[in-house]
Amino acid sequence: MLKTVIKKNSYQDSINLMLLTNAINGMEGVKKCSIMMGTDANKDIFKNSGLLTEEANDASPSDMVIVIDAVNEDVFENALKESERFLNDLAVKSEKSSFETVNSFKSAQDKLPDANLALLSIPGEYGVDEIENALDQGLNVFSFTDNIPLAEEARLKRKAHEQGLLLMGADCGTGIISSTPLAFTNAVKPGNIGIVGASGTGIQEVTTIIDRLGGGVVHAIGTGGRDLSEEVGAITAKDALIGLEHHDPTDVIVFISKPPEKNVRDEIVELLHSLSKPAVAIFLGEKPDHHEGDVYLAHTLEETAKIAVDLAEGESVQRNYSKPLANDVDTELSKEKTVKGLYSGGTLAAEAGMLISDALDLGGLIKKEGYILKANGYEVMDLGDDIYTQGKPHPMIDPEVRTEKIKAYAEDKETGVILLDCVLGYGAHPDMAEALAPAIVEAKQTAEKDGRTLHFVATVCGTEQDPQGYEKSIRTLKQAGVLVEDSNEKAVRLALKLKGIDYQTNAKEQTDVNVEKVTLPTLSDNIEDLFNTKPRVINIGLKSFTESIIEHGGTTVQYNWKPAAGGNKKLIKVLNALMKLDDVEQGNRDVVEQMKNTQPFLVDVVPAKDVIEVLNDRVILHAGPPIEFKDMTGPMRGSCIGAVLFEGWAEDEDSALELLENGGVSFEPCHHHHAVGPMGGITSGNMPVLVVENKLDGTRAYCTLNEGIGKVLRFGAYSQEVVDRLQWMKDVLGPVLSQALKHKKGGLNLSVMIAKAITMGDEFHQRNIAASLNFLKEITPLIVKLDINEEDKYSVISFLADTDQFFLNIMMAAGKATVDTARKIQKGTVVTTMARNGRNFGVRISGMGDEWFTAPVNTPNGLYFTGYSESDANPDIGDSAITETIGVGGMAMIAAPGVTRFVGAGGFTDALDVSEEMNEICLANNSNWSIPTWDFKGACLGIDAQKVVQSGITPIINTGIAHKEPGIGQVGAGTVRAPLACFEKALLAYADKLGIAVD
């Protein structure tokens, strides 16, 4: 039974998902399982394993895809529960963490404004953009991320160099900055040795041996494995060496390299000779026979460490550092028996292959299908090679690949010795020795049953300070029957000794060298800061990488990265291009400033046809983007019937419907006429409208009056009761309010009312009671002194007192006046309109003026009145999302904890989470409308279409729920999300307008 579950927009890093996959695959009844993000590369892995279902193939890169082949439904459900438990455990650990967690790079910078390093561990296909962004923000970069094209790595490193920054990586697994371990690194004592290396187990082996010899390391700068290629030209290595030269606490410099290009090697050696400090260098694969002045050339990683410690302690460098082995063996395996190496570390594997090949004259190393050495039956494998890690965790984390290989080699009658490394440190398996031990014991028993002796030889790369414990790991391996040596070199020598070969490294003489020293450049301020302070890290990707930083005195903020734009490459290019345009950024600032400085005043209430010319004909305005009557959903159709009856264009429902269906009435959006309307938005000529003027520039906007609750026109009801109320509003409510406002010079200052009401618990969409009462407080004295009959005074004041939502329509008009002023600046990507017509959700952005961008509207989630359910609900409808457009409503959920449960947002914490999430997609906060329950932070302001598309976070809107059939009215209230597609379309159109080519 093959089943698929897609968790939309639910990003997890690959290592967590690999470990989860292994856990599910270990469950009884699960035939096969794979859990990965829905990237194209991962879909290939699903396909190769026979798990690419139709649903998985349709997933986006930001979707988590769970495919399980189980024996029955119960097993499948249990597997799903286990996956939820696993992921929930990750969330709990995150909640208990001592670091800040954010969802965007900008938020990370806000939390850690003095950050000097970005640590990336994200999928390689997104690495270039994120590395470049970090460099553009003035940060040094440590890129654990791999699979960066070589040409791009070279370009980015040149850029980093030109900006005075260090780019460590790509594929940089290990580093130490100011004695703080980064990524997969051991805990070593601080000291006066600085290291530059390809970053991996080479650095780990040297630093751990230094630690165990009593020395210490201040810096270990990883360069990535391709830095010494001809294409890159050792850019990072050179900058790092110069940095160590200028770093006063560094007394000895160590350089570790796999075989480099010859001309690049020569440049590095020339630079080493130009340093004022003694340097130790190892170029794996070379077997030097002398030292050159103050540049000491080592053959093995152990020798490298020992020379460095002697120099650091002021001791003389010895001619030969070979020491006796810890294990005294007299067994000599027969000629046909060979040595097999199963390494989790590439550099350790390379060293093992080099030594075995040299001892047996096997012709040197190869790099093929995961093999470092494969000759005459002797094999050394790098199980960290991409061929073994595609879709699987690295062997330092997960023992599965290695245990399978141990089993296979144990059954091979030619295998006499299996060589292993056991790498400890941050990020590695919590107890790799214990995880490997059962497979080792089983393998030895397999050989014994076949009358053979199988030897295991291992080295533990670690220190006693490592989380796993160095001595504990050694004891565990020894108990499993493993011969353990304290370095990889010695482990290889022991394996060779079991073959009767006593391999020794050669002695070296000290020789003078006459080299013209090059002039070294000065150090940039950024690199000097990196080398002389504890790292301040924006960690982008694996949360586990924060552990070592915090433990060793660094500071960090966790950016919970997920693919921008859901992994859509075209949109990512648009985002990257827009980010680089100062004109767009300035336009956004200007639009937001206009919105923030809004000065809306309620100045009048008039018949709609007096201020909207088109309404002097048989025209009805509706909510949302353009729509024809034939396409309208039930509530809007019902509202249109009610408007026709109210205007007297028809005598009854049937004739009204006939008029509407036969084109007797024309329709236009409210937004096309500086107007907005709640729910159906229906506005006809004789309906009274609020007139709000933005004193900033005189822009006016209009909205119908709130009818109260129950059966009302805005929700599609059109009974005689509804029409009678509309008539009273036209004849009494509107004129009374108009006369009252004429007694208030300049009108009522709405910004002041809004500022007061938001502190009293209003969010201005679902909850307006404080604002409505403030309005009543202001308008009542004006009404009382009018020279009109007392019954009209009383009915108007009573209606306002009973209508808790009356201010909603005032707020909508204020919002429309605000955005219509800001929309005059036609630059940038600020959202200036959000509206729904029951079919489509439409947005406008500042840079595209009046153009609509639409997508099918969603149906709200929420609570229903007794007798109704979700099956009765109409898709979302109305112009009231203008409140969210200016930063209140659902955007300010935290302001109205009293209403959160009614709109389906849960409790206070959930409301806080909503507003924090909405803040991620906004450009600013409106200090004019501060929210006490949000630590007096200003309401969100300036929804940015770029941020929406980048993050996949869409605005949340508080809304009423209308029955899908006309004439019934409101059946509940809740929240709804704007569809992402609107914002994507807007950005693509704006990019096209700006001439940005993205195909």
UniProtKB/TrEMBL annotation:
GO terms for molecular function: succinate-CoA ligase (ADP-forming) activity; succinate-CoA ligase (GDP-forming) activity. GO terms for cellular component: cytosol; succinate-CoA ligase complex (ADP-forming). InterPro entries: AllG-like, CoA-bd, OXTCase_su_AllG_h-dom, SUCC_ACL_C, Succinyl-CoA_synth-like. Residues 342-496 form the ATP-citrate synthase/succinyl-CoA ligase C-terminal domain. It holds the Pfam family AllG. Residues 189-284 form the CoA-binding domain. Transmembrane segments: none annotated. One of its GO terms (biological process) is tricarboxylic acid cycle. It comes from the Bacteria. NCBIfam families: PRK06091.1. This is CoA binding protein. It comes from Paraliobacillus ryukyuensis.
